[in-house]
Design goal:
The complex is a heterodimer. By secondary structure, chain A is mainly alpha-helical. Chain B contains two helices and seven strands. The chains are: A mainly alpha, B alpha+beta.
């Protein structure tokens, strides 16, 4: 019964994960339209499998595309740093292994602690703005030195102002976050990469990792816990959570960072998918869709959803290991600059199709902020101020006064 | 030429120019006036202005106020979140918001648990004619 939607979900999730700029949320309206005659449980399984598959596939474009050169390595992703030492495939392997391990841990943790989720969610809700403020201070403080902290403060403030204006603007559209996030985290890296004539070094495609077992287990365990924790906190991204975990536990190195990131990503995805049933509030587009299909979850359906999560994850991890080898080989045979240029044109077209001229303006502005971040040499995750600051205003009750003041 | 410095200056300039354009466009645009029965899922995320009669008011224990507004037999939810509801109470406007009154609301169209809603953001988004 669930095999067809699971297989289909894995295929769709592979497309959503590999094509830059695509996301499961982009596919959901299409799935509702095309599979309107499908049984609601099967459609929910299809959405779950698509979301899970996307998690495993995402690492391929984020490792092999848009990598600037080694000079800017401090402000680029840890996966890009491994890529430049010929270990891009190892980044893929570590992420897949940590995601699989985290899946088991997260399901176990959710089953053990689910009676505490609703009280915790209710208790923390009135104090969310203090938690968000703490995260912002931490992001600034955790930079390597005082000048970098000042630069981080500038980036967070600018992105916060940008987010406040864009998210409350009358010209905003339903897909406004697409150009905002694509510009900061996708286009900026691609432009930097193109301008620096980056080339991919020869890669090692053996399935092996240099991370030690203890560090791997510790990173994934803490990552899974953090992934669940950020399910309670709006606007906190995966990278900020990873930075906090690494800083607080004094762990360093890009391999451990990737394992933590894989753990957080999976922990957050599983929690988000079933958040409607855990805390009474959907935490992702897929969760909203599942909630509308299955307002109540009985034990049989829960087992079915969990089975589809495990089945789609195992299929996707194998597929991701395979494609993680094939895609970079293809990229190496092509001109890396031209590949990046094609992706830039594709993202521009997708933005125009989904959000029109307004989206293009937003995309160019957010790209400038991402480029500024790269040129200043601070972490690009500071650009998440675009969601953190408006959320801080919302939960502290300041939004009406601020948008009145801005005349929006 | 210091390339890094040039990129920093250029990206800052482009960012400020882009932000300024977005801000000005927002100031110059006015919400689209739509009737409640026109609003469908395609409107989610758009900024609209609706008018109608208040048919239901519910005060939430956390300070939010939930309204149902009706126009030509079609209804839509209007949630007023606590921060805005507090301002309305302070200004004494809240006592004018009661069943049977006409209301004009500007806000973003959203969807909550399968139901469409128009969410006002600030005092000026709510008018009792």
């Amino acid at each position: 019964m669930i095999l067809f939607p699971v297989f289909l979900g894995v295929i769709l999730g592979t497309v959503a994960g590999i094509v830059p700029g695509m996301h499961v949320n982009t596919l959901i309206p299409f799935l509702f339209m095309v599979f309107s005659n499908m049984d609601v449980t099967e459609l929910a399984v299809l959405i779950v499998s698509t979301a899970m598959s996307e998690i495993f596939m995402n690492i391929i474009p984020s490792t092999f595309l848009g990598a600037p050169d080694t000079e800017t390595a401090l402000s680029v992703l840890p996966a890009h740093r491994l890529l430049f030492s010929g270990k891009g495939y190892e980044a893929v392997v570590i992420t897949i292994l940590s995601s699989l391990f985290s899946l088991l841990l997260t399901v176990l943790l959710v089953f053990l602690f689910y009676p505490f989720f609703v009280p915790l969610y209710t208790v923390t809700r009135p104090y969310l703005h203090f938690l968000l403020l703490t995260v912002i201070f931490f992001m600034i403080y955790s930079e390597k030195n005082f000048p970098s902290s000042i630069k981080a403060l500038v980036v967070i403030s600018l992105s916060g102002l940008f987010g406040t204006i864009v998210l409350n603007s009358k010209i905003s559209t339903s897909n406004v976050l697409f150009p905002v996030l694509t510009g900061m985290f996708g286009m900026s890296g691609l432009l930097f990469s193109v301008s620096q004539n980056s080339t991919l070094p020869e890669q090692d495609y053996r399935i092996r990792t240099e991370i030690n077992t203890f560090e791997f287990v510790k990173s994934v365990f803490l990552g899974s816990l953090a992934g669940i924790a950020i399910g309670f906190l709006p606007a906190i991204g995966i990278s900020e959570a990873a930075t906090m975990v690494r800083y607080l536990t004094k762990l360093d190195g890009e391999r451990g960072f990737l394992a933590t990131l894989g753990g957080i990503n999976m922990g957050n995805e599983v929690f988000s998918l079933i958040s409607l049933y855990l805390v009474g509030n959907p935490r992702s587009g897929a969760s909203v869709a599942i909630g509308s299909l299955l307002p109540f979850l009985d034990l049989g359906t829960l087992i079915l959803i969990l089975s589809s999560i495990f089945l789609s994850s195992s299929l996707s991890s194998l597929l991701s290991l395979y494609l993680g080898r094939k895609i970079p080989k293809l990229l190496l045979s092509l001109n890396y600059k031209i590949v990046n240029l094609i992706v830039i044109v594709f993202l521009l077209s997708l933005t125009f199709l989904t959000t029109g001229f307004t989206g293009i303006l937003i995309l160019l502005t957010s790209t400038s902020l991402g480029v500024l971040c790269l040129s200043l040499g601070v972490r690009r995750s500071h650009c998440m101020g675009v969601l953190l600051i408006p959320s801080l205003f919302f939960f502290s009750g300041l939004t009406p006064s601020i948008i009145s003041f801005l005349g929006l | 030429m210091d390339v890094k410095k040039t990129v920093t200056i250029l990206s800052t300039t482009f960012f400020i120019a882009g932000l300024f354009l977005i801000y000005i466009s927002s100031l110059l645009s006015s919400p689209r006036k739509v009737s409640i029965d026109e609003i469908t899922n395609d409107y989610v995320g758009s900024f609209v202005k609706i008018s109608g009669r208040i048919t239901f008011v519910r005060n939430h224990r956390n300070g939010h106020v939930f309204l149902t507004v009706e126009e030509n037999g079609r209804k839509i939810q209007v949630p007023i979140f606590s921060s805005l509801a507090d301002q309305l109470r302070e200004k004494g406007y809240m006592r004018m918001i009661k069943v049977g009154k006409n209301i004009i609301v500007s806000g973003f169209v959203g969807e909550y648990r399968g139901k469409l809603q128009v969410v006002p953001r600030k005092l000026e988004d709510i008018r009792i004619p």
